[in-house]
Amino acid sequence: SRAVTVAAADLGASSGRVMLARVGPDLLDLTEVHRFGNQSVQLGGTLHWDVLGLYRGVLDGLRAAGIAARSSGGLDGIGIDSWAVDYGLLDGTGALVGNPVSYRDRRTEGVMGKVLAQVGAEHLYAVTGLQNLPFNTIYQLVAARETPAAQAARRMLLLPDLLAYWLTGEEGAEITNASTTGLLDARSGGWATDLITGLGLPPKIFPPLRRPGDWVGLLRPDVAVETGLDEDVPVLAVGSHDTASAVVGVPAEGDRFAYISCGTWSLVGVELDAPVLTDASRQANFTNEAGVDGTVRYLRNVMGLWLLQECLRTWQAQGSPADLETLLREAAAQPPFASVVDPDDPVFLPPGDMPARIADYCSRTGQPVPSSRAAMARAILESLAIAHARAVRQAQELSGRSVEVVHMVGGGSRNELLCQLTADACGLPVTAGPVEATALGNALVQARALGAVSGGLSDLRSLLRKHNPLRGYAPQSTRGRDGSTAWARAEARVHG
Ligand code: LFR
């Protein structure tokens, strides 16, 4: 089998990138060819994504990828992944109706409660196996059910599928991302039609499903012209939910590992063969999202570095930006456990003045308000470490899988303080890297579909271990099983 050259477009809540990967049986090489910012936009009281800006970023990236790939014989494939749950609606002519809305928009406030009262939380979990987040597609669609855009819709396409549609003209819903909608049946793997009709949503808007590795289609002629690529370059389905691609990109050996895909969110969990649909799992709000190769991503969302990102954005908007590297160095020197928050508190979900919300949380809970930016950063990172450790522990308890190492991947795995604090809080070794696990997972699934590499996830992962420098963090304080350590006491302050 010959090596292939593929473009992996990975869209995150704060930036998008197109990476060029060369993959072969003993080759895995990744270069960034284009990076662009992404920010949601408030418009007329609704928080939108700049979806055309994202599409332009993908086109620019593909053009750059095509140029960079010339020396290796051109591009062999294109794969797209992004964050989950958000979507665009198409009318009967294939035109976008309305601009896609961000999952952080307030239109879903109160909707989850109403839907749960109608269909029953137990029933919903039994059907979908999905954690309840207020922004799941199911709640967004119900919130917008009566709008003219929804009335005009012929199709609902999740964001990576929408971009793939614009590139190829082919409609579909890739399953790893479809599994985050709250409208997919966890057992049958198909759309949960009874649930859909019961909620007054039109079943016809849900496109046929496709799997990672499936052929989506060839570039439209106008797109080929626009990007300078050949028309015969295929778009391939990958784990189009970024977290699904990130989990492929976890360089683990064996199955006794937990992962933390660490970016705007921290997605914390284990990889399983079968879903866990117990009542304890439902109450702990663990999710069974579809992974690549029929695996189950059994995990929980932890609010993640969003808390720090929003602090930085607030300080910047106030005219006194902070330098992240300096801030983290100062945070490392701060006294431990001054104040901790539950990062998953819903007050932290919307965009806005994060330092004020954290200060507020601290005074509400009788803790000192962080007196400096360094103290604020320390409080955030310790709070995340506590939440990481709690989710790793619960994932083991609820699934029966035991964990010997925690893999941190994604942008957050570059944050040495967060990695060390996570190792300490878990009482487990942390292996950090790769930073670009998502793009690597995206590229590996394409390369396998194109026949350049073969085997299961464990084979793809050994390629990752061989070609990526990883960094290890040993836990510096062990967590007593009786819960008497400083970390356990700190956890008790938020989960008393
Ligand atoms: C991470 C992620 C999470 C999903 C959240 C919102 O980027 O995809 O998995 O819960 O974004 O879509």
From TrEMBL:
Task: Tell me where in this chain the Carbohydrate kinase FGGY N-terminal domain is found.
Answer: 10-249
- Keyword terms of this UniProt record: ATP-binding, Carbohydrate metabolism, Kinase, Nucleotide-binding, Rhamnose metabolism, Transferase, Xylose metabolism
Q: Tell me, what is one Gene Ontology molecular-function annotation carried by this entry?
A: ATP binding
Tell me where in this chain the Carbohydrate kinase FGGY C-terminal domain is found.
258-449
Q: Please name the InterPro entries in this protein's record.
A: ATPase_NBD (IPR043129), FGGY_C (IPR018485), FGGY_Carb_Kinase (IPR050406), FGGY_N (IPR018484), Rhamnulokinase (IPR013449)
Q: Does the keyword Iron apply?
A: no
Tell me the Gene3D superfamilies matching this sequence. 3.30.420.40
* EC number of the protein: 2.7.1.5
Which CDD domains does the UniProt record give? ASKHA_NBD_FGGY_RhaB-like
Q: Which domain of life is it from?
A: Bacteria
Protein family according to the UniProt entry:
Belongs to the FGGY kinase family.
- Know the name of this protein? Rhamnulokinase
Q: The organism's lineage?
A: Bacteria, Bacillati, Actinomycetota, Actinomycetes, Micromonosporales
